[in-house]
Specification:
5-stranded mixed β-sheet, alpha/beta, 13 strands, 6-stranded mixed β-sheet
């Protein structure tokens, strides 16, 4: 069975700017008719729950720790009873949103998440944040969070961002993927 990929676009605000800027986030619900992984729990849990449509959520994977990608992770977790996963290098960003509770799982480069018979490899792609990750499957899907967008890299002007590091992540890990790879971004 082919991997089912559902997009939920949710409007909200990015807390990292002053004043908070309006932003639309892409939440990816990937899996099959029985179980899914949710990538990034942004702004409003209700449309994410609607997209899950009663399927079992095996994990809520954070592509990185920016507020607009984790701000309803705990609310979604309460609704779907799934663990939340984050790379440890973004723990300080997580703690800004949830100072009293840790994520349930820590992901590292090379981890493999299996959903709907598809293996998704965790790629640590720092630069947008120190703990940014992408998920890639050999079928040509890259769930890139805010690492790569059409036309260039994710933003690095925020605290903890590093332009040289994100360019290295993209050059060494993403540009070496097959040309037919489809990138599913965190925005846009």
């Amino acid at each position: 069975m082919a991997l089912r990929i559902d997009l939920v676009q949710i409007d909200g605000f990015f807390k990292g700017s002053d004043p908070p800027a309006p932003v639309q986030n892409n939440v990816w619900v990937i899996g099959d008719d029985a179980e899914v992984i949710v990538i990034d729990a942004s702004h409003d849990a209700a449309p994410i729950i609607d997209a899950v449509a009663g399927r079992r959520v095996t994990r809520i994977q954070c592509s990185h720790g920016h507020f607009d990608h984790v701000n309803v992770a705990r609310e979604l977790q309460s609704a779907v009873d799934a663990p939340i996963a984050l790379h440890a290098a973004d723990r300080m960003l997580w703690d800004d949103a949830y100072p009293d509770v840790a994520p349930d799982l820590e992901v590292v480069a090379g981890d493999v998440l299996t959903i709907a018979g598809t293996d998704l490899k965790v790629m640590h792609t720092p630069g947008h944040t120190p703990g940014s990750v992408c998920l890639y499957d050999a079928g040509g899907h890259l769930f890139g969070g805010d690492t790569l967008f059409q036309g260039g890299p994710g933003a690095t002007a925020f605290q903890y961002g590093d332009f040289e590091v994100i360019i290295t992540s993209i050059r060494e890990q993403l540009l070496v993927l097959p040309m037919q790879t489809h990138v599913y971004t965190g925005h846009g």
